[in-house]
Write a structure and sequence with these properties.
Layout (H helix, E strand, L loop, with lengths): L4 H13 L2 H8 L3 H15 L14 H29 L4 E6 L1 H18 L4 E6 L2 H9 L5 E5 L7 E15 L14 H4 L4 E4 L8 H7 L5 E2 L2 H9 L4 E5 L11 E4 L6 E9 L5 H12 L3 H7 L5
Parallel strand pairs: 1-2, 1-3, 5-6, 5-7
Antiparallel strand pairs: 3-9, 4-7, 4-8, 4-9
Helix pairs in contact: 1-2, 1-3, 1-4, 2-3, 5-10
Amino acid sequence: MAIKIEMLRCFSAVAEAGNLADAAVRLGRTQPAISMKLKQLEDHLDQRLFVSDRKSQLTPVGLQIFELARTELRQFDDTIKAIQTAAVSPQGLVRVASVPSVAGLVFPSMVEKFRVVCPGTRIELQDTDTQQVIDALSRGKADIGIASNDHTLNGIQQTKLFSDRFGLICSPRHPLAHKKGPIELVDVISDQFIRNDLCLSITSQIFQEMTARASLSARNTLSLISMVRSDRWVTILPKAVLHIAPSDLIFREISDLTSRRQVNLLLREKSPFQEYSEKLKDVILSTNWETNLSAGSPKR
C-alpha cells in the first residue's frame, strides 16, 4: 500500500495533539478511523512512530517523519489552494506580501493603478515581517514581496524600491517631542526606549552597543506603536512607519544616526500568473516612493 496524504494528515494531527481523541475532533473523524490510518502508515514503514499506545510521545523515527509529513502537507494544501484559486480567477491573481511599515505607503495607490491596467485581476494582500515575506515567496505563497534589506534568493528577482531614514517615533505628549534643538541618541536610548527588529539592520556599532542594554523589546509593529502611544515609551523606526501609525505619533530625525533602511521589491520568476505579476511590478516601480516619503508624509 502506498503512503497516502490522509495517512500523513492523521499522523500529524495525532502527533500535534498528543492523543487520538483531540486529533479526531480536529479532523472531524472517529478515533477508530484515525487509529486505522496510523496502523496503515506504521505497517507500510515497518516502524513504530509512537513510543506507546497513548500516542503522547514520538519515537526518534516518528520525529523525523513528523517534520517531513508537515512539510508535505503544507505543500499539498498550498497546491490545492492554488488550483482552486486558478479555477475561480480566470483573469488572474497576484499575491503580494509586504512588511507592515511599507504596506501602508504602497498598497493604496498600487491597487488603484493596477486595477486600471488589469481590470478584473484579483489581488491578495498580506502584511507580515521580512522573514515571513521571504518564506512566502520561497514557498510559492506570494508572487511579489516588499521587504527590508537585501536578499539573494534563487528564482527571485530583487529591485531597489526606496530607502528611508531611521528616526525617533514618539507621542506628541512625550518630552522629546518638544525638545528644542537636535535630538541625539543619548536622548533616546534610555529606560523608556523599546528595541525592535528593524533596529538590527542599523549597522552603527555605537548604536548596537547602546541598544543592546534595552530592557524592553517588541517584535510586532502594532504592539510597538501601541506602547509608544501611551506617552511613556519611545522607539526608533524608519520614516515610512508613519503611514501605518496613528495620526497622534510624530517622527524626528536623530542628528547622530544617519542610517537608512533599504526597501526592496522581490518578484518570483515563476508564478501561476506571471504576466500579471510583472505588470504589478511595473506599476509599483512607476512611482518614486522616496519622493512621496519626503513630500507626502502624513501630516502630524
